[in-house]
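Escalated from tier 1: zinc ion holo job.
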Amino acid sequence: MKKAVLYSRVSTDEQKNEGKSLEVQKDLCIKWARENDCQVVGVYEDGGKSATKTIGRDGLDDMIIRCQEGDVDFALIIDTDRIARNEFDHFNIKRELKKHGTQLVAVNQPMIDDSAEGMLMDGMLASINAFYSRLTGRKVKKSLEKKCEEGWWPGWGPIGFVNKNIGTIEKPINIIEVDPEFGPKVTEIFKLYSTNRYSVDDLVEISYKIGLRSKNGKKLCRNVLYAMLKNVFYTGSFKFKGKIYNNAKHKALVTPEIFEACQRIMDIHNRHVCRRRKYKWLLNGLAFCKEHDSRLFGDWVSHKGRAYYHGHANKGCRRYLSLDTIEKNVAKHLQTIQFTEKFTNRVIEKAKELVKQSREVKQQEIENVRNAIKQLEVKRNTLEDNLLDGTIDKEAFKRKHGEFDVQIQNYENNIATMENQGGLDVNVVVEIVSLMKNIRQEYEKASFEAKRHYLSMFFEKLWFDEAGNIVKSDYTPLFQHLIDNQFIRIRANWLKDRNLNITTYLDQAIKVFENFKLMSELRQELDKLKSPFVSPVLATT
Ligand SMILES: [Zn+2]
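Tier 2 regenerated the structure:
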């Protein structure tokens, strides 16, 4: 009999979400183990942990250590996002497990094998997870919206408020109350700001003095105070997924008049800094100065009125490289990466297969829950008969009926969560394939977040010379693997702009047309597979 270990994780935000609770995750993994004739030899979990870092996740470490003993065939998780939200961790963990003969299986996702195309898909899914977890609010969850409709903000209350469960552990009723200590202090800060006599920096100091502090007793950051002054939550309403809910049940800490005054003051102050704030630093953490072995940081040089990346002075690097130049060079550099035609086709085949599998897996899961609901409904009907027969009294009927209703509601929430769960969606596949076909073009039209996502998929470090040219690039483990196996060609000076002649133009035109044709064919084919409940959440950016 084969052996399996289970790993489940919930983040603090997810703890209250039925669909992802540790129990649900464990159940799904155990079910997989049973269906695949596996003996479960270890159960590991991390409660209230975020996947953005692997540090400090004891459960995960213990699981890996257990697998290192060498006799474990499968490590089961429900989704790849349980393991890591960035592809480097994901790749490394998977490789470590494989070294000891353990295969990582995401039971809610179709099986991704260890072929090169499987690995690319896997890496891309992992980085798509990483990308979407960076965007505010992860996937629409019907149960959360329901909470909003009821007038309760579905997350942690902002500073000045506390979350409270006034129900039981089994049947929690989570509400948000004013924090008796911090609440009045928040009101005070709003009032001070509305007088227009204090800057946000002044208020950082004042907050600290009156005892309005961060969880670990430190000064609040400027950004936290800014966010606080801008948050409509304090006026007794809230915003969720872009929608304002005025039916909020939590108490207001600030009157609409004072809040409005604060917004006006902030607008006036921000007008002077908006030019600076427009810049986000695409290459922070990625760009390095080759000569001084120094990281390059994005900065705004106000007397020149321009944005630069500059080195670390104590590493001897006093270089200032124009933001425009080096970001443009990065885009150009992407032209050197080219997937081979053969490999691209293999990925397309794999993608089609995976979308189909993903749909089937999801449909089966949902079908199972629907059946469970049906059974409960039958029981509920019997109960009604029993009341009519007089076999049970009204009190017992009410209690039992209520229990069934709660269970059915929970199951329905589960379905909503499953329907909205990532998995593999047509749009993701189209995104992956069009990226493979023309990296630079896709990159140029992408949003800031998507650009960062693409770069982090390809590169660990980019090294620049004094003119802002890229002299060396360190690829991510995944991409290095693909290059080593000649699935990707790296060309020096591929299609230098000034060398374009009429033939190359024609070639390019034909390529663009072929890509277009291929993409629309692929989309049509995949649309046929598209199930009615695949959500468009992962639409291309
Ligand atoms: Zn330097």
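The first helix runs from residue 22 to 35.
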